[in-house]
Amino acid sequence: MFHFLGLLLVASGQRRSLPGKSNDPSIALPLPRSYEFHVAPMQGYTNAPLRHLFQLLSPDAILWTEMEKVKDLLGADDLAIQKRFGDLEKQHDNRHRLTLQLGGNDAFAMEKCVSGLLQSGYQFREINLNCGCPSIEAGGADYGASLMKQPALTRTLFEAIGNACRSSNIHNTHMPAISLKCRTAVFDDINDLEFAMTSSPDEKWWKDEHFQSLCEYIDQAQLGGISHVVLHSRPAILSGLSPTKNRLIPPLDYDFVEQVASEFPALRVTLNGGIQTLQDLKTEKMNRRNHIKGESRGVSTIGSHMAGRWLLRSPMSLLAIQHRILDSKDRANNVVPWDDIFAGAIEKYMRYVEGSIDKKIHPWSELCLPLYLAIEELRTGFEEDAEEHLILHAQDDVQWASEHFLYETMKEAVERMVLRLPGSKQGKSKAIPREIHWKRLSSALKNIVGTKVYNKWRRNRKELLPS
């Protein structure tokens, strides 16, 4: 069923005043904020190695961990924690760019987990509670999107995180912000969504109820201490849809997110969902601005955007995000040495990889995956482009000057990986083609990680292609 927190009030004719609003017009205006771009948390992907490459490609992007289960963190030893979040000595340098996402529904365990991490010296820009993943309940756990049915518990969980942050901040150093990530609504199955959409007197009626319910929920989270809401712009379907279909079938509604942002001017609201190219991002930013200009204030209440799978399909789009959107010094610069910047990022990443291999922290599969994603993006781009340069999804924003230079960059990276293999396997470097052959270069990684892992990468990448 569709879960309305305010349904009884509406049925009785008593519609509550929406939270976040104020009769004081000076308070109702959105707070001035700098624009942010967030790379979404993605299970099996946004681990430490991929985050490291992403940070090199876009130093100003906000990176998120994978969703970390509270019970797993409580049972993890020092090496497992280091694998997730990096060396304490180096972690200080990126604390303002990393958001920790947690999954769980036990307030006591949540507080203990956060306190343990912070008191150990780990610092995060933000701590986020996952209240938007629909596949968690389908897997038998009672958190994720199912928490949207439990506003009181959600508030308690945020209070627990806040208590941990305050009690651990004994030296008055950096204290992380607290945030909510959720969907626009939650339904038990797809039939409930279809029923709500077709049985209402008109679309406005069910959307009003949808909106009222979500505002009630965010109100409770705000009382719990959040300062930031990330809204995936679709409803969540708790059962009957795969994770992939849950990202595609429920309808997107960006104007709905704008409405929510207007109701909560004290909160940063980040729009998530459906952004698949740089042009999508630029268009959405412009649409939000024009939408608001046409109505009143001249500034959108949406303070930031989030995207995920687009950047797995096209990790080098982060270069364009950095130099065309986030870095004000480069926005007007029409000549950006994309090839050199990318090659520099790969060189720094390989130094990180070699250090990680020496310390035996990350498995080969995690260290090789970022290289695979970059090679596949280049392979796809050069195979589809008739001219011998690649224009990424950024269209006229990013142009690669030399396929040969990029190929040599990636070939050298793969060779360095092979040279780190046990001596008996170093002969596999012969499988790396000298001349440009992107498919064979990609396949050379199979000799490092094994056929099973490599084939899984290929299957997963097919799911990343725009539908």
UniProtKB/TrEMBL annotation:
GO terms for molecular function: flavin adenine dinucleotide binding; tRNA binding; tRNA dihydrouridine synthase activity. InterPro entries: Aldolase_TIM, DUS-like_FMN-bd, DusA, tRNA_hU_synthase_CS. Keywords: Flavoprotein, FMN, NADP, Oxidoreductase, RNA-binding, Signal, tRNA processing, tRNA-binding. Its cofactor is FMN. Residues 1-17 form the signal peptide. Residues 39-165, 208-335 form the DUS-like FMN-binding domain. Pfam families: Dus (PF01207). This is Dihydrouridine(20/20a) synthase.
